[in-house]
């Protein structure tokens, strides 16, 4: 059953069609990867789904709800969480604080209750903390719990960002280049996390990735795009064998 | 070296991590409570001034230090707080109802102003708020029925539980009133910071785009921060009105706005301590400069304080030095000293060197 349905989505930036009539469906429980050369519009698709960009045309449906017109801050509550290509963590806070901010969509107290710190606030803080600790255990972040983000190595920050997305209790998680800037060992570790999220947490994962070793290992299905247009869709092997995909990456054979 | 073992989530939720911290702040509060017996009336009055500036500073700290929105116009909200409080008291309101009302009025005005003004950011926001400060100076002259026009208004005497509280006649009672308000404001501030509301403010400061992706309604949260900030500053303004006893359009100039901003920058942005450290500097630095000037002047045969603007210049110099050598302010220095003692003898020089910040995308602003 499809969890996310993207239907003929388009957006243009000053005459350049960054995403041109793209359609795809992500099934519940699968790892769906979007690949493509630089500037193909992969991250733009992500920003359209998380409603940071306004689409020119098309429809996005999540869990039978049309989210094309929803404001960006309502997306998390529906069950879509995401990470960013360049890591958008809260640098001056600890890992724990970052994950607690991740629980924002699950808040059930108002600012007046917070100001007075009513017993209800304490109860909900305990609950948030419990959920966050589960994620810290799951992604083995315990040694970094009280460390500031600004002092953490790049690879750990990538994991913390995934942890923060998990804290929002999502059904679908969007990973924007989870392996960019990681070493070979860290990439293979990232593959474990992705497999664990899919199998243990039952999450659906939509991913943009360049590292083909990671794509081959974790993806159930792959969509290839170039210059905002659809190229091919299928398993990782099928997409890589597709002549149009090879042409987009390597250019046309000279005759 | 101190190691802390935690055994309950409540330890991170509580205001104080452990007993030793509770004792430290308890002793501080006790010292402040005993201050009227330890210090002369002159210093008690200086201490009241520090507390009043701390309230205003806390107001701006919430907005600038914790939500990341700069304001060069907070004197405007001190003015609205002071004038509305005095006007209400002159019409027979009691002190506390008038104080709550003036905080609410300023909070609502702040919320109305916040919507359009917080669409801008950075330097544009600074200019917009600066303009606000200048406009309010003029409104203070025009709105004569409330503000008393050019001649200004006088503070009504404070009657609380049968006592008359006046800065000059009963400085100790006035000091206790300021202390009580500071404690209340600080507790409310800490409560916000340790719950979801405060975390959403921090989120906006550090990355607006991920705050949105995590479900923070950014315009709403910014407006809330601005409004709470204005309400706190208004309380500071009202108390300042009672401290100086007479206010007019010249009492809350742009200079005051800039002073509050400098106060929290010197104290240390993004920390509650910073507002207090900054207030100490703002109130005591002119005094220290005057005393030093007298001492130097006695040797040289003329007073150095007679040079116009010397205290402002020195103040500016301190700020420049601070920003170059310790951007985290006095609170940053305090943390370093504390860490040095905690880690003795293992402290390394590079411990607080800030690590490289990775590129952040601004495309989605």
Automatic annotation (TrEMBL), chain B:
Localization per record: Cell inner membrane
Top-level division of the source organism's lineage: Bacteria
Topology class, membrane: Multi-pass membrane protein
Pfam families associated with the record: BPD_transp_2
KW Phosphoprotein (keyword) present: no
Transmembrane segments: 21-38, 44-63, 95-114, 123-143, 173-192, 224-244, 251-269, 275-292, 304-325
InterPro entries, per database record: ABC_transp_permease, LivM-like
Keywords: Cell membrane, Membrane, Transmembrane, Transmembrane helix
The protein's name in its UniProt record: Branched-chain amino acid ABC transporter permease
Species whose genome carries this gene: Psychrobacter proteolyticus
